[in-house]
Amino acid sequence: MSETAAPAVRMTLRVYRVNGGGEVVEDRGRVSVMGADDPVPTTSAYPPCGCVGCTARRDAP
After folding, report:
1. pTM as predicted
2. Checking DSSP bridges between strand 9-18 and strand 24-34, what pairing results, if any?
3. Most CB atoms closer than 10 Å: which of 4, 10, 21, 59?
4. Are 27 and 16 contacting, i.e. CB atoms less than 8 angstroms apart?
5. What's the confidence (pLDDT) of residue 12?
6. Residue 21 carries which DSSP code?
7. What is residue 17's DSSP assignment?
8. At a CB cut-off of 8 Å and minimum separation 6, what does 27 contact?
């Protein structure tokens, strides 16, 4: 019998909704991001990713 391993959780986030004053108005619970063999997507988030792959793409002509 062959069993496949479940993907490992790569990250767990706690999610909150806040109002304009920064007060937590709702606890949305936890979100688990499952692992995958795909590369991490590029993002325009700040601060920018500092990994070798992203840095090479930013520095490419």
Report:
1. 0.38
2. antiparallel
3. 10
4. yes
5. 83
6. T
7. E
8. 14, 15, 16
Q: Percentage helix, strand, coil, to 5, in the chain?
A: 15, 35, 50
Any bridge partners for residue 46, and if so which?
none
Q: Which residue has the higher pLDDT, 15 or 48?
A: 15
The string of pLDDT tens digits covering residues 3-35 is 566 667 678 889 999 999 999 999 988 888 776
Determine if the peptide bond prior to 47 is cis (ω within 30°): yes
Eight-class DSSP state of 28: E
Q: Which residues pair with 5 in a beta bridge?
A: none
pLDDT at 1 over 60: no
Query: What residue type is assigned to position 18 of the chain?
Result: V
